[in-house]
Protein backbone atom coordinates (compact mmCIF):
# COMPACT_ATOMS: atom_id res chain seq x y z
CA UNK A 1 0.00 0.00 0.00
CA UNK A 2 2.84 2.42 0.88
CA UNK A 3 4.52 1.74 -2.43
CA UNK A 4 1.31 2.57 -4.31
CA UNK A 5 0.82 5.82 -2.41
CA UNK A 6 4.37 7.07 -2.86
CA UNK A 7 5.17 5.35 -6.14
CA UNK A 8 8.42 3.76 -4.96
CA UNK A 9 8.84 1.75 -8.14
CA UNK A 10 9.24 4.91 -10.28
CA UNK A 11 12.38 6.99 -10.74
CA UNK A 12 11.41 9.64 -8.20
CA UNK A 13 9.96 7.09 -5.79
CA UNK A 14 13.20 6.62 -3.87
CA UNK A 15 13.53 10.39 -3.55
CA UNK A 16 9.98 10.57 -2.21
CA UNK A 17 10.89 8.08 0.52
CA UNK A 18 13.91 10.17 1.49
CA UNK A 19 11.83 13.36 1.58
CA UNK A 20 9.13 11.71 3.69
CA UNK A 21 11.72 10.38 6.16
CA UNK A 22 13.39 13.79 6.29
CA UNK A 23 10.07 15.47 7.05
CA UNK A 24 9.32 12.92 9.77
CA UNK A 25 12.74 13.53 11.33
CA UNK A 26 12.35 17.31 11.23
CA UNK A 27 8.86 16.96 12.70
CA UNK A 28 10.11 14.84 15.60
CA UNK A 29 12.95 17.28 16.26
CA UNK A 30 10.69 20.36 16.09
CA UNK A 31 8.08 18.62 18.23
CA UNK A 32 10.66 17.90 20.91
CA UNK A 33 11.84 21.49 20.94
CA UNK A 34 8.25 22.75 21.07
CA UNK A 35 7.38 20.39 23.94
CA UNK A 36 10.49 21.53 25.82
CA UNK A 37 9.49 25.18 25.45
CA UNK A 38 5.92 24.52 26.58
CA UNK A 39 6.81 22.34 29.59
CA UNK A 40 9.81 24.17 31.05
CA UNK A 41 9.43 26.70 33.85
CA UNK A 42 10.13 30.29 32.85
CA UNK A 43 11.29 32.33 35.85
CA UNK A 44 14.20 34.55 34.77
CA UNK A 45 16.15 36.22 37.55
CA UNK A 46 19.23 38.47 37.34
CA UNK A 47 21.37 35.63 38.72
CA UNK A 48 20.12 33.25 36.03
CA UNK A 49 20.78 35.76 33.26
CA UNK A 50 24.48 36.28 34.10
CA UNK A 51 27.18 34.53 32.14
CA UNK A 52 28.24 31.22 33.65
CA UNK A 53 31.99 30.58 33.66
CA UNK A 54 32.66 27.29 35.45
CA UNK A 55 31.21 28.48 38.74
CA UNK A 56 33.36 31.62 38.87
CA UNK A 57 31.78 35.06 38.78
CA UNK A 58 32.55 36.76 35.47
CA UNK A 59 35.14 39.51 35.85
CA UNK A 60 36.24 41.96 33.17
CA UNK A 61 35.22 41.89 29.54
CA UNK A 62 34.22 38.83 27.58
CA UNK A 63 36.87 39.39 24.93
CA UNK A 64 40.09 37.40 25.08
CA UNK A 65 42.69 37.26 22.35
CA UNK A 66 44.48 34.05 21.48
CA UNK A 67 47.66 33.69 19.51
CA UNK A 68 47.47 32.72 15.86
CA UNK A 69 50.01 29.93 16.28
CA UNK A 70 47.41 27.74 17.97
CA UNK A 71 45.29 27.88 14.82
CA UNK A 72 48.35 27.10 12.72
CA UNK A 73 49.09 24.04 14.86
CA UNK A 74 45.51 22.95 14.33
CA UNK A 75 45.85 23.26 10.57
CA UNK A 76 49.10 21.35 10.63
CA UNK A 77 47.43 18.59 12.64
CA UNK A 78 44.68 18.41 10.03
CA UNK A 79 47.31 18.08 7.31
CA UNK A 80 48.95 15.17 9.14
CA UNK A 81 45.58 13.55 9.86
CA UNK A 82 44.59 13.74 6.18
CA UNK A 83 47.97 12.33 5.30
CA UNK A 84 47.37 9.35 7.58
CA UNK A 85 43.86 8.84 6.23
CA UNK A 86 45.24 8.57 2.69
CA UNK A 87 48.22 6.42 3.61
CA UNK A 88 46.26 3.51 5.09
CA UNK A 89 44.10 2.80 2.02
CA UNK A 90 47.14 3.25 -0.19
CA UNK A 91 48.93 0.54 1.75
CA UNK A 92 46.08 -1.91 1.10
CA UNK A 93 45.74 -1.07 -2.61
CA UNK A 94 49.49 -1.17 -3.16
CA UNK A 95 49.50 -4.93 -2.60
CA UNK A 96 46.70 -5.52 -5.15
CA UNK A 97 47.88 -6.91 -8.50
CA UNK A 98 48.17 -4.30 -11.24
CA UNK A 99 48.20 -1.27 -8.98
CA UNK A 100 51.76 -1.34 -7.67
CA UNK A 101 53.66 1.24 -9.72
CA UNK A 102 50.69 3.54 -10.31
CA UNK A 103 49.80 3.82 -6.65
CA UNK A 104 53.45 4.16 -5.71
CA UNK A 105 53.89 7.17 -8.01
CA UNK A 106 50.61 8.73 -6.87
CA UNK A 107 51.55 8.37 -3.22
CA UNK A 108 54.96 9.91 -3.74
CA UNK A 109 53.32 12.88 -5.47
CA UNK A 110 50.93 13.21 -2.53
CA UNK A 111 53.77 12.94 -0.02
CA UNK A 112 55.72 15.55 -2.00
CA UNK A 113 52.84 18.01 -1.59
CA UNK A 114 52.72 17.25 2.14
CA UNK A 115 56.50 17.67 2.40
CA UNK A 116 56.31 21.02 0.58
CA UNK A 117 53.67 22.18 3.07
CA UNK A 118 55.80 21.13 6.01
CA UNK A 119 58.89 22.74 4.49
CA UNK A 120 56.94 25.96 3.94
CA UNK A 121 55.73 25.94 7.55
CA UNK A 122 59.28 25.27 8.77
CA UNK A 123 60.75 28.07 6.64
CA UNK A 124 58.12 30.51 7.96
CA UNK A 125 59.16 29.43 11.48
CA UNK A 126 55.69 28.17 12.27
CA UNK A 127 57.03 24.90 13.66
CA UNK A 128 59.39 26.62 16.10
CA UNK A 129 58.23 27.09 19.69
CA UNK A 130 58.75 30.65 20.87
SSE blueprint and pairings:
Blueprint: H1 2-6, H2 13-39, H3 68-94, H4 100-123
Describe it:
The protein contains four helices and no strands. It is mainly alpha-helical and 130 residues long. It is flat and about 70 Å long. The chain starts with a helix and ends in a 7-residue tail after the last helix.
How would you concisely characterize the structure shown here?
NDH-1 shuttles electrons from NADH, via FMN and iron-sulfur (Fe-S) centers, to quinones in the respiratory chain. By secondary structure, this protein is mainly alpha-helical.
Q: Fraction of residues in helices? A: 55-70%
Overall 3D geometry?
flat
Query: What class, by secondary structure content?
Result: mainly alpha
Strand content: under 5%
Helix tally equals 4
Quote the average pLDDT: 79
Q: What's the end-to-end separation, in Å?
A: 69 Å
Order of helices and strands: HHHH
Largest sheet: none
